[in-house]
Write a structure and sequence with these properties.
With about 375 residues, the protein is of the alpha/beta class. The chain is built from twelve helices and four strands; from the N terminus they run ββαβαβαααααααααα. It is about 70% helix and about 10% strand. A four-stranded mixed sheet has the order 1-2-3-4. The longest helix is centred in the last third of the chain and has 40 residues, at about 245-285.
């Protein structure tokens, strides 16, 4: 190869065979040419060229074009021109993303699309909630169709296997509340009120809320993965062919298991949180367990327990419906399964927090 540079480009002379055996050397030589103008490639002395040699020339041509130059092929045979054309057409073209408009119309259009998408998603969730209640009504009319075995299996997976992580989480939350509360209340000589802080925080809000968040991350993903895998393997279509209702077989036992187990997990979280708070209060403030119990009974109303537990069935419905809906949206690829599983976890946790905020406003308005 010989390259003679000129003021606005250069003359490139190639000879011999431009094949896969010499493509590495040819590519390195072409990469060393710093041409930015019009470069003429003379292929008159080239005896043979294959797709590898044509690729090296096409890559060189793309680099020149990116720098504002161009490559002109001269004295090439018909076969060489045909190979070059085929390789040029097959070369990947850089995609230029469409320019985003930044005017008011574009903003309103994007906002409208987001609102419509959100409303459609909410309506779909409402539809799945309706399917659950419809299946539950059919079970009440004909109890012999009740999927007891499936309910027990899902209850074990949703409830029993989640007890260790829920109990540990609540225990640590109680420890943190007691430690942080004692550090602040000690400044005012009101250390004894740390019991009230722990009791109200755990029983009313944190116990059931953090339990629901853990269950949302753990169970919503499991529901989506299980139903989505069945959707990918066309097992749900086979159920419909056999006359089985997916809402009755798949949705009902899973959501019922959540409705039964989440209040129990909430109670376990409350007890563990109070135990953690009592332990840290004893170690940090010297409040004995008997004093903690007396202060807990005298200063904490039982309504705080009911306020927390009333939220559990609603959280269970939200988590179960979101998980089942996401599983039914899975398409036939593993990528779709992973994406919908991730979306289910995020959506379930977000929905739980939003519902808890509405509950807080509602109880505050009622003065409870």
């Amino acid at each position: 190869m010989q390259f003679d540079a000129t003021g606005d480009g250069g003359q490139l002379s190639l000879s011999g065979a431009l094949t896969v055996h010499d493509v590495t050397r040819l590519h390195q030589q072409l990469s060393s040419i710093a041409g930015t103008g019009q470069v003429t490639a003379d292929l008159g002395a080239v005896s043979h060229i294959d797709t590898a040699g044509a690729w090296a020339l096409s890559t060189f041509e793309q680099r020149l074009s990116a720098a504002g130059g161009a490559l002109h092929v001269a004295n090439a045979s018909d076969n060489a021109l045909q190979v070059l054309k085929s390789v040029r057409d097959a070369m990947p073209k850089p995609e230029t993303p469409p320019r985003q408009r930044m005017d008011l119309r574009a903003f309103l259009e994007a906002t409208g699309r987001a609102v419509v998408k959100g409303v459609s998603f909410a309506l779909e969730l409402t539809g799945y909630l309706g399917m659950f209640f419809s299946s539950l009504g059919r079970i009440l009319v004909n109890p012999r169709k009740f999927p007891l075995t499936s309910l027990v299996a899902h209850s074990e997976d949703v409830g029993f296997r989640a007890v260790p992580i829920v109990a540990l989480m609540a225990f640590l939350i109680g420890v943190v509340l007691a430690f942080q509360g004692s550090a602040q209340l000690r400044q005012f000589g009101a250390e004894v009120f740390v019991v009230d802080l722990i009791a109200i925080s755990v029983l009313r809000e944190l116990g059931i809320l953090l339990t629901a968040i853990i269950v949302a991350g753990r169970t919503a993903s499991a529901f989506t993965a299980a139903i989505g895998s069945m959707k990918m393997r066309e097992e749900i279509d086979a159920m419909r062919t056999l006359g089985l209702d997916p809402a009755m077989v798949l949705f009902l036992p899973r959501i019922l298991a959540l409705l039964l187990m989440l209040p129990i997990l909430g109670l376990i979280a409350n007890v563990s949180g109070l135990l953690g708070g009592a332990l840290m209060s004893w170690l940090e403030l010297g409040i004995s367990p008997s004093m903690f119990r007396i202060r807990l009974i005298e200063g904490t109303d039982i309504s705080h327990v009911f306020v927390g537990l009333i939220k559990a069935p609603v959280f269970a419905l939200v988590i179960g419906v979101v998980g089942c809906h996401a599983g039914m949206q899975v398409r036939g690829t593993a990528e779709s399964l992973g994406r919908m599983t991730s979306n289910a976890v995020v959506t379930a946790i977000f929905a739980v927090i939003v519902v808890d905020a509405f509950f807080s406003i509602f109880f505050a308005e009622l003065g409870i």
